[in-house]
Every structure is written in C-alpha cells, then in structure tokens.
From TrEMBL, chain A:
It comes from the Bacteria. It comes from Streptomyces olivochromogenes. NCBIfam families: SCO2521_fam. This is Uncharacterized protein.
UniProtKB/TrEMBL annotation, chain B:
One of its GO terms (molecular function) is ATP binding. InterPro entries: P-loop_NTPase, ParA/MinD_ATPase. One of its GO terms (cellular component) is cytosol. Keywords: ATP-binding, DNA-binding, Nucleotide-binding. PANTHER family: SEPTUM SITE-DETERMINING PROTEIN MIND HOMOLOG, CHLOROPLASTIC, SEPTUM SITE-DETERMINING PROTEIN MIND HOMOLOG, CHLOROPLASTIC-RELATED. Signal peptide: none annotated. The keyword Protein biosynthesis does not apply. It comes from the Bacteria. NCBIfam families: SCO2523_fam. GO terms for biological process: negative regulation of cell division. This is DNA-binding protein.
Length: 325, 305
C-alpha cells in the first residue's frame, strides 16, 4: 500500500516537511449573476474522478478537487543557488458566495532528500510534497519564493495557479458580463517551521505593486499544509475585497462629485460585495490567532467597516435629500 | 470592450490616434490598457513617453507571452513610468492607464492553436479588469489581425464586445486601400467570416478613422489663393464621393483628425497644456481625439438603437 497522503506527517521514506509555499490568485467571477451551489459545482469540476466539495454555512463555498501537477525543476532561491526538487504540487479552485473565484497552488518541501530521483510512484503517493536533492536551504528558498531573484525555469506556483484560474474563466457557462471591473490579486506565501514551543504566527503581510501581496508564516509541526493554504486563501479573499472596495470608493470620488454619480459608482459594492466579508470563516482553529493579529495591525476589518460606513452614510444623505420637499 | 486598431498601410496615425484615445478615456475615469501588437515595430512607448521601453522590451512582452515564453506579459503603469511632464502628475479621478509593450525582436509568426488560447486568456483577463482594451495591430493583413479575428470568433469570448477602428489618411490611395483592407476579398470582413464571425455583426463593429485631414473650409487652408482653394474643394468633394462609393463614407466613419504639425513631426499625446498653454497644437486636434474617445462607446455612433 502507498504511504500516507497527509502532507503534515513524517514517514520513514519521506523526511520531515520544513517549508510550505504557495500562491493564490483571486478575482471576481466573470458572470452577471452569482452562481448557485449547483452552478458553482459544475464550474469547478476540474477532475472527473473526484467530487467537488460544497458547504453552505456560514456562506456558500465550493471547492474543486485537488489537481496534482508533477514537477522536477529548481526551486526559487534568493541567492541563486540551484536546488533541484521533485514531487507534486497541489492546485485547486474555490468559489465563495458564487462570486469570488480563487485558484491556488501549493506544495510542502521536506528538509532533505536523496541526491537522485526516486521512482514516480513514491512522489505520487505523497500529493503536494516536493523533495529536494540534498539538504534544503529553507530560508534561501523561502526568500526566493517570495520573489527575490526568480529565474526562468524555476518552479513557478503562480503559473500553475494562473493556469487553473484561466481554465475556469474560459468556461462557456460564464457570460463575461461582470457587474464591475476589477483586478486579479496574487498572494505569494511561505510558511516556515516555528521555533520549538512557539505557536503559529504571521511574520509579515505586505502589498507590492500590481495586485501582488506577500505573506510569511511560522507554523508549529503538525499543522497540515492544507490548513496553511486555507488560511492564505481566506487572507487573499479578504485582501481582494478590501483592495476592490478601496478602489471603488476612490474612483467614485465620494465627497467631491455630485452625490448621485458617486452612488451609481458605488452601487455594485452594495449589490455584490458588502455581504461577502466574513474573516476566518473557514480557517482551522489553530490558525485563527493569525487572523486576530491582522485585525490588530493593520486592522483589516476596521478599514472595511470604515469604507462600508462611508458608503452607507452617503446612501442615507442621498435618501434624505430626496425626501426634502 | 475590446477595440482593435488596424490599418492597411503604415503612416496612418494608427498608433498615435489610438494612444490619444486611450489617454482621453483614462482622463475621463475609465481603466484603460493599450496593447502594442504592432509586431515588428512597437511604437506605443514613444507616444506615451516611456523611454525605458522605447522600441519594445527585450523579453517578456506580448510576443513572448503569445509564443508561450512568458506566462504573463509585462505591464507598465503609464502614469508612473512616463516622462511626459504633464502626465507625471496623475489627474484626480483618472482611471488606470496601462501599457503592454511588445518585444523588441517580435516580428511575425504563425497563428497556432496555443497562441490562440493564450490570446483568449489574455483578452478575457483584460476584459475583466479594464473598461477599454485597446489593441494596436500591425499594418496590413498581418499575423496580429488574423489572431484578433480568430480569438474574437471563439465561443469563449461571447459577451465580450469587440470593435474595429480602421485608420487611413484622407487621400485617394488611402481611401481605396482602406476599403479593400476592410471589405476586399482578402480583407478583414472576409477573413472574419471565414473564421466564423457573422458578416453583418462584424461589419457593424467596424468604423473608419481619417487622419491628417486637410479641411479646405478652415484656416489656414481657407485663406489660400482662390485658384488653390477651388482646386482643394474639388479634390475634397471627389474624395468624399470616392469614400462613399467604397463604403468608407460618413456613415462608416467614427471621426477624423485634422492635419496637425505636432503629430506629423512628433507622434505624441495631445494634452490641454499643448493647446491652451504652450499652444503648439490646434484645439481642433484635441477636440478630435476627445470626440473619438467619446464615440468609442456611444451606441449612436455604432448604429445601435
């Protein structure tokens, strides 16, 4: 029988995982209406042999089966060191409330591996695990994954995420009539092992240009890669919401133009975005404190609420203006 | 909306007019991107005054992307990267203005199924992000034109509106060439139909843009000696008749840009500053670009009730 598939566990053949990294792309589904659960499930059936997961509480959330991609290439590294690695990457797509489409790819890298390629059966039995040739310089590779010194030909999880996203967006069931224009955001993330006895932590979350974000986590042993990926999907989703709403309020020129114009520009926010905010709805219990840290600094929900309040105040003012004789 | 800028010949002001349309749409608050599909001689960077990518970029541009050598094409924020003295201060309320440069050594290549699929993904992606996606195609029935026709005919792009602007100069040869380029046996219309486009729908999505138009009724030409003036009027009327006969007349025209020394000698964006402050460009030129930018999405101009 094949070895255990749980990427968080240590086995004799597969050494200890020390680094997880991934990239998740988030965008508005290019469709006029929000999809129903059934429509979403049809859209995300990326594999015929495995079923789509659907959950309705606390919001409608549909997740595609995991799609493995075999890789044999160099890992990105900040120093330019060539670290060859072999294994499989896990990709998946999700749809939240029939509106927000995400596609992500991630993999776990073990501390070391043999200096030669094993038979493929070994890697196939460990979906989402990549083994380096020799010892993994984890800090160097983590920095490389976050973007420093990327070279063509290195393992590019962004490309795998992007391929998954475009595959879904090409679906002919979509009418390409989204209620508003918006950008795709990309979150690159790495999770290194926390020091013994330390709990999980979010070391940094930064915004780069062109919708690129970077996050670095520390995770204690035993937290599965899928949980880290789940947290990062959730972060990416809320970052997209915030980015998109900030941009929409900015574009509406709220306060400087005729209130009615601003309302027309903000209407899609009320119709399609404001009910989607639900931080940590699907984050595993041990990782919830990371969200709480983000709420303190920089204060995701605080900023969201201020924007929502501005929009509601504007609506109230316009209504009041209408009621005046 | 996808807008394809095409022309039969070079020197029709295709790039400079398209860049000005993009610029004015962005000023009005739209998010606009400009794709330099001018395989062989990418020029848009010069018009937008982004010297770092003048003549295209070394690699990672649109050609690399379409050939599968880059998983996404390089994009440049024009407001942030331009060295144009006026554009550097991004006006309040303006939309994004993004340039996708071509590769320096782009050149022509065949349309394969892979590049069509990459084209589909690219246009779908840009359509989701930008109000106007302006694609500057190289002159003639080029690879770029074929790719645009092929991709827009695919069912994946249903719901994504596409319009074609065919640029030509206001001369006898150019009118004839533009008409053949649009409606001739090897023209856009027949090429589109061969790829599955509906003939009437495609024809309805095509409009002509006249460039370097010399109007005998406005100065300085209206001040010419009587004999010259009469000759110019006769020629102009003859051109109008020719254009009407060839399907390039008023009803098929989206706008016309006057003969403008600034554009003849230096392809550039025309700003308020050029017209009202330094006064190097004529107000008619600015107005022509503003009109074109407005008509691009004005359904009346496209015969849509």
């Amino acid at each position: 029988m094949a070895g255990p598939a749980n990427t968080g566990e240590r086995t004799e053949q597969s050494p200890e995982p020390v680094l997880v990294f991934g990239e998740v792309h988030t965008c508005l589904l290019q469709h006029g209406q929000a999809l129903t659960g059934r429509g979403a499930a049809d859209l995300l059936r990326l594999r015929a042999d495995e079923r789509v997961r659907l959950s309705e509480r606390p919001n409608l959330y549909v997740r595609s089966p995991d799609v493995p991609t075999g890789v044999d290439c160099h890992l990105p590294s900040a120093s330019g060191a060539k670290v060859r690695a072999v294994g499989t990457v896990t990709a998946r797509a999700t749809l939240t409330e029939g509106r927000l489409l995400q596609a992500g790819a991630h993999c776990t890298v073990t501390a070391d591996g043999p200096g030669r390629r094993r038979r493929w059966g070994h890697y196939l039995a460990r979906p989402g695990v990549v083994e380096p040739f020799g010892t993994l310089p984890e800090r160097d590779v983590a920095d490389g994954c976050l973007g420093a010194g990327r070279r063509p030909g290195d393992l590019d999880l962004g490309a795998i995420a992007d391929r998954t996203l475009t595959r879904v967006l090409r679906d002919r069931a979509l009418d390409n009539q989204p209620p508003f224009k918006s950008q795709v955001t990309r979150l690159r993330w790495v999770a290194l092992r926390a020091a013994d006895g330390e709990g999980p932590s979010l070391e940094r979350f930064t915004l780069a240009g062109d919708g690129l974000r970077m996050a670095e986590l520390r995770l204690p042993a035993g937290i599965p890669a899928a949980a880290a990926a789940g947290l990062c999907h959730d972060l990416a989703l809320h970052d997209w919401l915030l980015t998109t709403l900030v941009r929409m309020v900015e574009r509406s020129r709220l306060g400087s133009t005729d209130g009615r114009d601003a309302l027309t520009a903000l209407r899609p926010a009320v119709d399609h975005l404001m009910h989607l905010w639900m931080p940590a709805a699907r984050v595993d219990q041990p990782l919830r404190p990371l969200w709480e840290a983000l709420e303190r600094e920089p204060g995701f929900t605080r900023q969201w609420q201020i924007l929502v309040q501005r929009i509601r105040d504007q609506l109230a003012l316009q209504t009041a203006a209408h009621l005046q004789p | 909306m996808l807008v394809f800028a095409a022309s039969d010949k070079g020197g029709t002001g295709r790039s400079v007019t398209s860049a000005n349309i993009a610029f004015h749409r962005a000023l009005a608050g739209d998010d606009v991107c400009y794709l330099d599909f001018d395989f062989g001689s990418p020029t848009a960077a010069a018009v937008f005054d982004v010297p770092s990518v003048m003549g295209g970029i070394v690699q990672g541009g649109l050609h690399s992307y379409l050939q599968g050598q880059a998983h996404e094409p390089v994009r440049l924020d024009v407001w942030a990267r331009t060295e144009h003295p006026v554009l550097r201060h991004r006006p309040a309320g303006s939309g994004n203005l993004v340039l996708f440069p071509g590769d320096r050594s782009g050149g022509e290549f065949a349309v394969g199924n892979d590049s069509v699929i990459r084209g589909i993904d690219l246009f779908l992606r840009l359509h989701s992000e930008f109000d106007v996606v302006l694609v500057d195609l190289s002159a003639g029935r080029s690879y770029a034109v074929d790719l645009a026709l092929e991709v827009t005919a695919r069912p994946e792009l249903h719901g994504v509106g596409a319009r074609w602007l065919i640029h030509h100069r206001w001369t006898r040869q150019h009118v004839i060439a533009a008409s053949g380029f649009a409606f001739g046996p090897r023209g856009i219309l027949s090429g589109g139909v061969a790829r599955g486009h509906d003939v009437e729908e495609l024809r309805g999505s095509m409009r002509f843009v006249r460039a370097a138009v010399l109007d005998p009724e406005t100065p300085p030409w209206s001040l010419a000696p009587p004999a010259q003036s009469a000759w110019m009027r006769t020629c102009d009327q003859g051109l109008h008749r020719l254009a009407a006969d060839r399907g390039v007349g008023y009803s098929a025209m989206l706008g016309s840009v006057p003969l403008e020394p600034v554009l003849q000698w230096r392809e550039q964006l025309i700003t308020d500053e050029d017209v009202f402050s330094s006064r190097v460009a004529g107000p008619e030129t600015l107005k022509a670009f503003q009109d074109l930018a407005g008509k691009l999405t004005d359904d009346d101009a496209w015969g849509i009730p």
